[in-house]
Specification:
- The protein is 60% helix and 16% strand.
- It is built from four helices and seven strands, in the order αβββββββααα.
- A seven-stranded antiparallel beta sheet has the order 1-2-3-4-5-6-7, with helices on one face.
- A hairpin with a 2-residue loop joins β2 and β3.
């Protein structure tokens, strides 16, 4: 699963130190690996310290499955599910953003072509300005819609942080992991 668009969305939303190499991304003191069925967080300084969430909604800390109470189980399931929902939405936003970028480049080429049309007596600078304004407004509206979608991701990221905080508070195996 490619997480680069997820990371891009997160970079814009938070003041974290992010880096992505395709399958893994790194933020502050945490390495994050996302596969098709699990999320593995590890300490950047000690990769033997790990927290894993899997598709059975299990929490595995440092290779040991943690027995969870009902609330902890709900938190693990929410964290796992929302993480993958977030990635899916971020990928959609990344694709849409790329399309808007292509449209922006096309608009630039159209502007160059229309400048050449100014040599014609049938095309004035007012025509040029009107054409470019119309096309750029259309592109701006698409970018604004995309920005609103990205703002929704910020809410999910914040909620994931709240889930993580509650999980850490209620799970003794996580309390001593400063990086989680």
């Amino acid at each position: 699963l490619n997480v680069s668009s997820f990371v891009t969305a997160c970079e814009k939303q938070h003041d974290k130190n992010f880096h992505c190499d395709g399958k893994h991304f790194f933020m502050d003191d945490v390495n994050v690996e996302i596969d098709d069925d699990k999320i593995i967080l590890s300490n950047k300084c000690d990769e033997d310290e790990t927290v894993e969430f899997n598709d059975n909604y299990e929490l595995i800390v440092n290779g040991e499955k943690v027995d969870l109470n009902k609330r902890q189980q709900e938190l693990v399931e929410e964290f796992y599910t929302l993480s993958f929902d977030l990635i899916e939405e971020a990928q959609k936003i990344g694709i849409e953003g790329a399309k808007i970028g292509v449209e922006g480049a096309t608009l630039g080429l159209t502007a160059v072509a229309n400048v050449l049309r100014l040599l014609s007596p049938d095309y004035s600078s007012d025509d040029f300005e009107r054409d470019m304004e119309k096309k750029s407004k259309k592109l701006e509206k698409k970018a604004e819609r995309l920005e609103k979608k990205a703002e929704k991701l910020e809410v999910i990221v914040d909620f994931l942080g709240d889930i993580r905080d509650e999980l850490k508070e209620t799970t003794p195996e996580l309390r001593d992991l400063y990086w989680f």
